[in-house]
């Protein structure tokens, strides 16, 4: 097997963020575990959403890496029944965060982006996309960046996969 890396741009890790939240859905949870481990000095809240108990993984690791862990499943077989952003919404109001990092399904990312924007909280999104080359040559992984009336194509592989939520356009 041939491997190249590291590629692309990572999450912004900084000691200036005292209270952080990570919001992950499905396979999008995995990069967030390593991010939590990097943010050593921060107060860390983790929010993980899954389809059902059959898909719930690595909760012990997230529990150890965070100060509090919230879990939801669509069918209520583990944790809160419903979508994970319901729990995030409650904590934004009660606790407040300096930054929210998110990775997972696009509807969840869109919702987290909107919630962060409304609350005036910084937000980084890590996008999932099909990739061919990983180095910006094949254009398989295009996404829109800029403002809705003045945007351009960027590469998730090279310019991301992590973007500031206010620089990326997440079309329906
Ligand atoms: S994967 Fe080829 S340009 Fe991004």
From TrEMBL:
Q: Which UniProt keywords apply?
A: Membrane, Transmembrane, Transmembrane helix
Which segments constitute the Oxidoreductase FAD/NAD(P)-binding domain?
23-113
Residue span(s) of domain Dihydroorotate dehydrogenase electron transfer subunit iron-sulphur cluster binding: 128-168
Coiled-coil zones: none
Origin superkingdom: Bacteria
User: Which is a Pfam family this sequence falls into?
Assistant: NAD_binding_1
* Membrane-crossing segments per the record: 20-36
This protein's name:
Dihydroorotate dehydrogenase electron transfer subunit
